[in-house]
Every structure is written in C-alpha cells, then in structure tokens.
Amino acid sequence: MSRQPKPPTPELTSEDDGLWRLLFPEAHARAHLVRLDQSLQEILARHTSLEAPVLQLLGEMSAAASLLSGSLKFEGSVLLQLHGDGPVRLAIAECSADLNIRGTATCDQSQVILPNADLKSLVNRQGQGRLSLILDPQKPGQSPYQGIVGLQADRLSAAVEDYMTQSEQVQTRIWLACDGQRAAGLMIQQMPQEGGHTRTPTPHHQEGYRRLCLLGDTLQSQELLTTPAQRLLHQLFWDENARLLEQQPVQFHCPCSRMRVGRMLTGLGRAEVEDILGEQGRVEIHCHFCNTAYQFDPIDCARLFTETDLGLEASTGPGPSQTRH
C-alpha cells in the first residue's frame, strides 16, 4: 500500500526519548510510537562486553517493553524476558508505568555469535527458547503475573505479536528497529474492549485496522529510527482521522540502591549471610541492570540485622563500599 503525498504540517518539537499515543476512532484501533536515544545509550554503556547482535536485540527489547508498558493500564513494571539454549541465555527489558527503562543480557561465552545472527540463532538454537511477559505490581502484597510462549519467530517483533495473539487475544502488529545507538518501535492494536465488555470488531473496524497495518508495513528501519516522531506519524496516518493523545518521556532508571540490597540481605536471614561472610569475608551483590556492585563487610551486616531487630529502617552504613564499573 502506498502513501498519498500531502504538504507536511508545521514541525512540532519532539523529544528524542518518548512515547506517543494515537487513537483511530473509525478503526477502533490505537497506535504507540516509541523512540529511545539517550536512554538506550545509558543501557548499552553498562553492557559494553556484549556483541553487536546482542546489543541490537537488547535495544529492540527495550523499545518493545516501552510500547507494552505504555499500552497497559497497570501500576507496576512490565518485564519482557527471553531465555533459551542459544548464546543469549537470558535477556530482560523492564519498563515501569512512568516509562523508566532498564535492560540486561547474559550470554554463554562458549557459543559463537555471528554478526548477522537473528533471534532464533541467538536464543532458540535447539528449540528451547521462550518469551515471557511479566507484570510486576507496584502495590505491596500483589503477586506478579507471568505469561510464557514458545519462540517460533526469527524476529522479536513477530515473537511479541505471537504472544499478544495467543495470550492476550489482542490483534497486534509491531515494527522494531535498533542500530546500536538508537531504538524505535511502532505498535498498532485493534481494541476489543469497550465499556468493560468484550466487543468483536465490526468488518468496518477490521478493514480500518488492516489498512493501518499496511501503512505500517511501508516503514523502513532507518525511517523509524531517524524521522522526527510527529512528522513520522503524520506521514503515515495523515488520512486516517487520528487523534494524537499525548507524549510521555522515556528515561533510563535503575531502582536498585544500597538500602534495597540491605533489605534483601536481611530477608535471606542472619544464618545464610553469616555463612557467606565465613566463606568470602564479605557479601557482594552485583546489579546486572546498572552494573553497580554493593559490598557489605561483617560490620555492615551486623548493623543491618541490629537495625532490623530494633525495627529501624536499615541505613546500611556509608556509601564508599558501593562501586560502579
């Protein structure tokens, strides 16, 4: 399907890192566009040992997690997780409700990664790959929800589409791109819910959704990565009576802290922490998302449990024993 030419609208200011939402009332559909620049660079700067195809996958996962988080009315974090038997054993991208993102990947160094490796060769080499979508609630006492599907696709976008169709029963198309410095994604969804009840889209709505997807299929990766957001949305959907709802910034943020780690250690129990101290002389916890190491010596650990016994918030001591690599 080709786009019809039309004079462009005046350029609007676009932030490099943001999420844009569009509504198509006539098609009973919606679209989300995400652009990650500085936020992605902050993620990748903490994983410089990863090879280029893994960094590209992590960028696409970060864009996909942002799209999914932006589309869900959920107070908490959305985690997109890949795990399998290829050189990438585990990859995670997490996006909170206020669009704070972080990501990490763990690789099997004994397996070779080819420069043009696709999703299947990275994660699903022997057919053991899985994609998980985890909703981690913000409110205490609520349990996370996890949905898992097998990986059949060669591209992450197709894998997420498969998940949304199988597990969420929402017609979804996704286009993702990452060049190692920036990442971007476009998601178009048919909206089956109306008034709190399941509503089957009419033939008119289905035709409108199909037309929007055909327009999305005209996108080139470089266009998705480099064209300013409002201009790209206008060029794609100028004739679809779309309503631009809002823009929300996206930023890198890792919520780990020395205090959080201290609470986690007290949760392990005094006996287990003392066993670690006896073997290693200190306890070291490494955050794989932001590459920060937290070290606790015997005095730090004793203070943790003393404050816990007294019912105080663990201060975990001064900060010099926190190191960043």
Nutshell version of this structure?
The protein is built from 10 helices and 16 strands. The C terminus is likely disordered.
Task: Describe the fold and architecture.
- The chain contains ten helices and 16 strands.
- The protein has 325 residues and is an alpha+beta fold.
- It folds into two domains: 18-192 and 200-252, Hsp33 domain (3-Layer(bab) Sandwich), CATH 3.55.30.10; 258-324, CBS domain Like, CATH 3.90.1280.10.
- It has a six-stranded mixed β-sheet with strand order 7-6-3-4-5-13, covered by helices on one side.
- Strand 10 and strand 11 form a beta hairpin.
Write the layout of secondary structure elements.
Blueprint: E1 18-24, E2 29-36, H1 38-45, H2 52-71, E3 76-83, E4 88-96, E5 100-107, H3 119-123, E6 130-137, E7 145-150, H4 156-168, E8 172-178, E9 183-190, E10 193-194, E11 197-198, H5 203-217, H6 221-226, H7 229-237, E12 243-249, E13 251-252, H8 258-268, H9 270-280, E14 283-287, E15 292-296, H10 298-309, E16 322-324
Parallel strand pairs: 5-13
Antiparallel strand pairs: 1-2, 1-12, 2-9, 3-4, 3-6, 4-5, 6-7, 8-9, 10-11, 14-15, 15-16
Helix pairs in contact: 8-10
CATH A-level architecture of the largest domain: 3-Layer(bab) Sandwich
Proportion of beta-strand residues: 25-35%
Average pLDDT reading: 86
Helix content: 25-40%
Helix/strand order, N-terminal first: EEHHEEEHEEHEEEEHHHEEHHEEHE
CATH-defined topology of the largest domain: Hsp33 domain
Task: Report the C-alpha radius of gyration, rounded.
Answer: 22 Å
CATH superfamily of the largest domain: Hsp33 domain
| Lateral strand order in the biggest sheet | 7-6-3-4-5-13
What characteristic shape results from the CA principal axes? globular
Distance N terminus to C terminus?
49 Å
Question: Describe the biggest sheet?
Answer: 6 strands, mixed
SS-based class: alpha+beta
The top-level CATH class of the largest domain is Alpha Beta
Number of domains: 2
E-strand count: 16
